[in-house]
# Entry
Amino acid sequence: MDIGQPADYLLGQSMFIMSEVQKSSASISVGHANSSIIVHETAEVDPSAQLGPNVVIGPGCKIGPGVRIRNSTIMGNTKVNGFSLISDCIVGW
# Structure
């Protein structure tokens, strides 16, 4: 599947998150610095991880301790090891 340019995908993701916030969707969670993020219910996120702004975590993902993710999508069943920094990325394609 062609998702276009990664920057365009992440911009669309940001717009989608904003629309879900406006609808008060149950899929929205509060991330780092009160940003809005989406974390699938089956994802495991260490409490010390900092997610946001503009972050989507897919099903079955494992996010380790001290991880910082911003403006990124983590696709399903992806493991992010502890103390990683992910910014402006689409991971797990």
The helical segments are 6-22. DSSP finds one helix and eleven strands in the chain. The first strand starts at residue 28 and ends at 30. Residues 6-91 form one domain.
